[in-house]
Amino acid sequence: MSDIIQKVKNLSIGFKSKKGEEILILKNISTKIKKGETVGIVGESGSGKSTLALAMMGYVKHGLYTIGGECEFNSSNLLNMKSKDLEKIRGRKIAMIPQNAGQALTPNLKIGYQIDEALQLHSDLSEKEREKKISELLNKVRLPSPETIALRYPHELSGGQQQRVAVAMALAGTPDLLLLDEPTTGLDVTTQAHVLELLNFIAKDTGTSMVYVSHDLGAIAQVSDRIIVMYSGEIVLEGPSRDILKRPIHPYTHGLLKSIPKLSLAGLPESMPGSQPQPGIIQSGCSFFDRCNFSEDKCKNTSPQLEFLKELNTSVRCFNYEKLLNESQVNQNVNKIKNNSNDKEILNLSEVSISYAKQKLLDQIFNRISDDNPTVQDININIKKGETIALVGESGSGKSTILKSIAGLLKTKDGLIRFDENRNLSSDLKERNPNDLRIIQLIFQNPDESLNPNHTVEEIIAQPLKLYFGLKGEELNKNIIDLLQKVRLGEFYMSRYPRQLSGGEKQRVAVARAFAAKPDIILCDEVTSALDVSVQAAVLNLLQQLKEDFGTTYIFVSHDLAVVRAISDRVAVLYQGRLCEVGPSNDVYKFPSHPYTEVLLGAVLEPDPDIKPKLVAEDIVEEKPPEKGCSFQGRCSRIVGDICKKDIPPWQLTDSGNAIRCHIPIKELQKEQL
Amino acid sequence: MKINSIYKEEKKSAFQKVSEVIITMASRPSGFIGLSILVFHIILAFVSPYIAPYDFKAINPTLMLQAPSAEYWFGTDDLGRDVFTRTILGGRTALTITFFGSLIALLWGGLLGIFCGLVGGKIDDIVMRIVDAFLSIPWILAMLLIVSLLGTSTEVLIPALGFFYGKGIVRVARAATHDVIAKDFIVSARARGHSNFSIIWNEIIPNVRDAILVEGAMRWSWMLLGFSSLSFLGFGVSPPTPDWGLMISNARGLMSFAYWAVIAPIVGLSSLIIGINLTADAFAKALGIDRSTKAPV
Asked: What was the pLDDT predicted at B289?
């Protein structure tokens, strides 16, 4: 068949452990990629999806080796080809777009030069033609004024623009197959939506086949015609995109779709128990057995084979897929979160502004900060006891900066942070007493970085207990076990090191450490974004449970609007360090009134082929907040006039208690929505 | 369900950890050779006073410059002393002085480097510029100055060598600290309100320890060479104590006709340095630090 461009046959890739055991990363994978088709490969970290994509261009990562099988491209096996022959195929026939374009582009060469290099390698055009082609390529990826972009260095471009340049470079060789490894993962929501839309356009325009690797079902849903779901190095489900997202007939995919928070549903989704087995753990039977809700005794001992169902055009690796066939839709059950906040104010930020500007000598002497246009300005938030307030915005919106100041890690320029209605907290760590430090605890984004790799779980959790309560011996031990049980970890975890835990377990330990201090407020900085989707829901549920048990207040920072929707009572939307909208999350999500909120919500990707992102505003990135007027003036599609550029918009209150900062009258803002 | 042992490791005692590192080191040929040479030298340094066949300071004019024979394995020197006896005794002083010297270097260099890396700012700037200034002084001139002012006793040599070889460790320790300082677990400890001392002791040292130890092991071999150079110049060990540097210096004029008097101490010195070097490299590899990509500062 000529319309098949890449054929993977019985591919197994693995490595040798220190003890000489063969450990498989990919287990007997077979699949085909047709001409002009976009295939999404989805799976958790460690499922082997990147290894499979790399093998498709004949590359096996250092330390891994091919155990068996082949990757056939144009009827020649890439995996035993000489590197000279591979050079002719890579870039020219198969191109790759990496996850982080900022790192993939050479920092000291101009964009134009780098694309030219790719053209020289992969085409026979003359210099004049190449020049024209560069403009053409940059135009194709919709970069504004290609001539000037070509003369810039990579660091002068934003993340989204860098990713576009990477796409342009990949297209330079007019490849038949494009491999994309998490190409939008590091980007902001709005940028991500734009890049995906561009990729869709290119796929249609050039007829290139694409293999899109991602952990994000939302992104996959927007681009792919067919989806391959991987689990523990195996294909567990493969079929047309729509069928898989609407009627997943493998329990893993089914559970996964159930556990992803959605914009349309407030409340926490059901979580999937357990985590993916690490490579090298040899199980008899199905690899998903431990986490499966549909398993039988048979699944424990015999591993199911990938079965092709002709009528559905789908392959599935499960004995019991028929049970799922009858369930027509994924019925997502959510646990509505209880809002147990009372009216007592616990933290109040008034007129807070924070500046990163370098202080001048005179200011240093007088110990003051002078900056007319600080990074974060005019933050007034009133946080009630027991509520979860979320700060949302794109990167650079100042949400983490505000958290740092609350934690005392970053000095504010102006403004007051008041705890419990009467106690002023200094933003300088040194001026806080131990009790002030105890009441506010942080949970970080990446548990790999927030847990000391050389400490055992016991030592990690013991730290706050020793520091704040001076616990010792038996009592300390008892408290640690108690905390571990609260985060659903067993006592035997005490002697483990972070590297021996899975991502979700690590984050649980970090949660336990935060709760060890018996804090009143916990600052959660993107706590779920480093976790796998199937684990994310479990951690969110745990946080909610702990909050209900202890009456803790959460300040939750996230760029993932669906997660925020699931867990928060109130939302504050930030742009360029200025508040745009503050209100109850139901209200903000139902009627996104501020133009920026509208843009943000419109760009959210849902794992549903029927819900397309709305691209309202451009995805340009502003580096500095405007000096005068509304912070969102640079990107707003609904500018009223000069007033937006001159005056800071006033706060307007809606009936439901939603505060919006915009010059457009509330009634008009809401009308647009309906 | 059968679980492979690789992901199942329980907490190990310090002894288990050390023995595991040593086993890993010895599993590579270069590490094995290095370790054997080093262990051989250390054992020799301990037992040599008991096994030496002759008195190291017994001068015998009738036996001047004898070629190696069954009686005098490595021959005799220009004063008729047995070269074998003096060679096996010759490493003791050097090994002891440099061992303690490098311990001192490790201690002050490591702690100062970590401290500078942690506090940063002005203090870091000032201390590092002073360290740079010291780095620019040729160490041998400075050592000569110290030794001629204060004498060549062990109490002078150990701290002086320790000081001069610790400067480089400051840089390494500071760089290693910078690698971990930005990590969230340090931020987290700060936000909890731990003292600087507690942060250094609990959070930083466990993470930079390996890098500093490897650097210290490397410094040891350099210091050994430096110390022997001092002896060679006559500023190290005073005669008649046997010492390789001194022996090479004494016999170098006779090299053309009594090569044995020079060869034996040279072999002793260079084998020890090679041994320490190979061991330090294997140590680094066993700990997962690649020295080949990081040039010593």
From this structure: 66
